[in-house]
Amino acid sequence: MKIVILLDSSGTNGSEKIKNKNIEVLPLHFTFSNGTDMLDTPKEVKERNIIKQISEGVDIKTSQASPGEVENKYDELLQKYDHIYHIPITGNLSSMLQTAMMVSRDDKYIGKVTVYENLNIAAQAIEQTALYISNLLEEGKIETPEQINEAIKEYEKSIYIAILPGDLRRLTSGGRGKKAVTTVLNLLKTKVLIKWEAEPKKEAMGRTVHSIMDKIVKVYHDSYTKGYEMIFVRTALTSPKIYEAAREALVEGKVNFSEELIPNIYTAHAGVDTIGFIITKKVSQ
Q1: Whether domain 160-281 has CATH 3.30.1180.10
Q2: Is residue 81 a contact partner of residue 47, using CB atoms and an 8 Å limit?
Q3: In 10 A of CB 254, how many CB atoms?
Q4: CA 9, CA 265: separation in Å to the nearest integer?
Q5: Which end of the chain has less neighbouring CB within 10 Å, N or C?
Q6: Dist. CA 276–CA 260, nearest whole Å
Q7: CATH pick for 3-28+64-156 out of 3.40.50.10170, 3.90.1720.10, 3.40.50.2300, 3.30.930.10
Q8: Keyword set for this entry (predicted)?
Q9: What is d(CA 223, CA 12) in angstroms, rounded to the nearest whole number?
C-alpha cells in the first residue's frame, strides 16, 4: 500500500526536511478584518509581509482549510497514492481536525483516508512525527494505517512542547490556553511558559526569560538527553533580547538543540515575540 502523510501548514515552516518524502502540506488561511483572506504558504506570507503586519498590530486571524479544499486535496493525492494519513493541527487550536474527520467519512474516502485525532502534537512536533512515520514506512517496519495509529500514539508519549507566548492576550483571545494563563494576565511583565497538550498548563512563571529557561534546561536534563533532540523555535521578528537570552541559557545549560522558525500560524496566535521548545525522539533524515 502506497501511503502519503498529509500535514497542514501549522506543522511545518516550509522545511527542507520533508522534501522528497511521502509528506504533503495543506495550507491553512490568514483572514483580515475586511473579509479577505490568503493561504498560509511561504510565498504568500513573504509577499504580503504577514509577520511584519502582525508585529504592527494589524488584526489578522487564522482559519482552517474549507471542506472543499480538504476534499480537493484528498482527490489530488489519491491519484498518486493508495491511502492518505492526515495529521491536522491540534483540536484545541482549530476546527481543522473536526472538518478533516467529517470529510474523511464521505463514502468515497472510506478505506482511503485516515485522520489522526490530534489533541497534543503541535508545530514542528507534527513534522517530526511525520518524518518518523515516513521512515518506518520506508523501512517496511509498518505498512497499514492501523500500524501508523499505534506508532504515533507511542511516539507522542515522549514529545515535550512548551511555548513562551509573546502576547498572552492574543493567545487567549480565542480561548487558546486561557486556563493556563488567566491568573497572570493582569500581572505586568510576567512571562508564562505553557506546556502545550490537550489541556495546556502553566509550566513556569517569571519576570525574565532567563528565569523561565531554568525550567526548560531542567526538563531536558531530567528526561530528554539521550536519544532526543530539541528544536528551539522563534518567529522571524522575535526580539533579539528575548531570542539571545533564551539561546544563551540553552548553551550555558549544555542543551543540544537546533533552531527553526515557528510555523506562521502560531505567530498569529501568540505574537511575534513567541519562542518555543520542542523535544522529540531523534529522527533520521
Answers
A1: yes
A2: no
A3: 10
A4: 8
A5: N
A6: 10
A7: 3.40.50.10170
A8: Lipid-binding
A9: 25
Reported as a single tens digit per residue, the pLDDT across 78-108 is: 999 999 999 999 988 889 999 999 999 999 9
Helices (H), 84-143: 96-104, 124-138
* d(C-alpha 29, C-alpha 36), whole Å: 10
**217-258: pLDDT as tens digits:** 999 999 998 899 999 999 999 999 999 999 999 999 999 999
- Residue recorded with cell 515535550: 160
What pTM, to 2 d.p., does this model score?
A: 0.92
Structure-block grid coordinates of residue 153: 500514539
Note whether 79 and 85 are within 8 A (CB): no
Cα–Cα dist 93/113, whole Å: 22
Q: Which of 5, 14, 17 is nearest to 137 (CA)?
A: 5
- The string over 15-25, giving b where at least 16 C-beta atoms fall within 10 Å of a residue's C-beta and e elsewhere, is bebbeebbbbb
Buried b (16+ CB within 10 A) or exposed e, 121-150: bbbbbbbbbbbbbbebbeeeebeebeebee
- What is the C-alpha separation between 216 and 261, in angstroms, rounded? 18
